[in-house]
Design a protein that fits this description.
This protein has about 260 residues and is an alpha/beta fold. It is about 30% helix and about 20% strand. The chain has a single domain, classed as Rossmann fold. The chain is built from 8 helices and 13 strands. Strand 5 (about 65-70), helix 4 and strand 6 form a beta-alpha-beta unit. Belongs to the peptidase C26 family. One of its GO terms (molecular function) is gamma-glutamyl-gamma-aminobutyrate hydrolase activity. Involved in the breakdown of putrescine via hydrolysis of the gamma-glutamyl linkage of gamma-glutamyl-gamma-aminobutyrate. Its EC number is 3.5.1.94.
C-alpha cells in the first residue's frame, strides 16, 4: 500500500553553467536547505536544460510549490523588449527558457510560487512586466548591489528599510508595514506585469516585493535575500512559513485531502 506523503514537493530552480569539459547545473545550497526548514517541504532541484528536454506540464502536475532562486545572471532583455545589455552582463538563456514558461504554468495550475532576487524579476517578466537593468546608473536611487569590500556575512547585512503596502499580502505576513532587509541586486522591476501588485518599496522607490492577488494560490516575489543569514528570523522566517503553509494546502488538495488536518 502506498503511503500518503506528508510533506509538499517544492521545486528549486537551478542555473546552467558551461564548463571546460561538461556543463553543470548549479544552485546555492542555501536555497535548498531553506525548504526543509523553515518552509517544511521536500526540495526538488529543477535543472536549466535545453528547450524541450523538460516536460513542464508533467513537472507542474507533481509540484506543490515553486521556489525561484537568486543568481549572478540576469534575465535576457529580449524577453521584456529591453535594450541590449551592457557588455559583460551575465545571462543564462537556458534558465530563462525553463523558468519563464514554468512560472506561467505554475500560477495557472494554482501552484504556490516564491521568487527571490532574480526570482522576483523572472516572475515580473513572465507576467509581461519589464526590468531596470542597471539601477546604479540612476541619479535618484542608491546602489543596491552587493558589497564586495566586506567579509561574507556583512554582504547580507540589513541595508535599508522597506515600506509595505497597507493591507497587502506581505504586510499581513509580516504583521507590520516596515522592515529592514539586505540588498544584493543590480536589476529591479520597472513596470509591473499583468495583474502584478507592488507589495513593498525601498526608500528610493525601487520595488522590493510583488504579489498576484488574482492568482489561485500564494504568489510572492521579494527582491532581497530572506534565505540568508542563518538562522532565518523575523519577516524572512514568516515569508517561508507562509509559503510552506500554502504548499501544504496544495498538497492536500492535490491528494484530495483538502479538508484533512495537517
Amino acid at each position: 500500500m502506498l503511503s500518503v506523503p506528508s510533506l509538499p514537493l517544492i521545486g528549486v530552480t537551478a542555473c546552467h553553467q558551461e564548463g571546460e569539459d561538461h556543463s553543470t547545473q548549479r544552485v546555492s545550497e542555501k536555497y535548498v536547505t531553506c525548504v526543509p526548514e523553515p518552509t517544511g517541504g521536500l526540495p526538488l532541484i529543477i535543472p536549466a536544460l535545453e528547450e524541450g528536454q523538460l516536460d513542464l506540464d508533467s513537472l507542474v502536475a507533481h509540484l506543490d510549490g515553486l521556489l525561484l532562486t537568486g543568481s549572478p545572471s540576469n534575465v535576457e532583455p529580449h524577453h521584456f523588449n529591453g535594450p541590449e545589455s551592457v557588455e559583460g552582463t551575465q545571462h543564462d538563456p537556458r534558465r530563462d527558457g525553463v523558468t519563464l514558461p514554468l512560472i506561467r504554468k505554475a500560477i495557472e495550475a494554482g501552484v504556490p510560487v516564491l521568487g527571490i532576487c532574480r526570482g522576483i524579476q523572472e516572475m515580473n517578466v513572465a507576467l509581461g512586466g519589464t526590468l531596470h537593468q542597471r539601477i546604479f546608473d540612476f541619479d535618484d536611487t542608491f546602489d543596491h548591489r552587493m558589497r564586495r569590500d566586506v567579509e561574507f556575512d556583512r554582504k547580507y547585512r540589513p541595508a535599508h528599510e522597506i515600506r509595505m503596502t497597507s493591507g497587502g499580502l506581505l504586510a499581513r505576513i509580516a504583521g507590520s508595514e516596515t522592515a529592514l532587509v539586505n540588498s544584493l541586486h543590480a536589476q529591479g522591476i520597472d513596470k509591473p506585469g499583468e495583474n502584478v501588485v507592488v507589495e513593498a518599496v525601498a526608500p528610493d522607490g525601487i520595488v522590493e516585493a510583488i504579489s498576484m492577488p488574482s492568482a489561485k494560490a500564494f504568489v510572492l516575489g521579494v527582491q532581497w535575500h530572506p534565505e540568508w543569514p542563518r538562522p532565518i528570523e523575523g519577516i524572512n522566517r514568516k515569508i517561508f512559513e507562509a509559503f510552506g503553509e500554502a504548499c501544504r494546502a496544495h498538497l492536500r488538495a492535490r491528494l484530495g485531502l483538502a479538508d484533512a488536518a495537517e
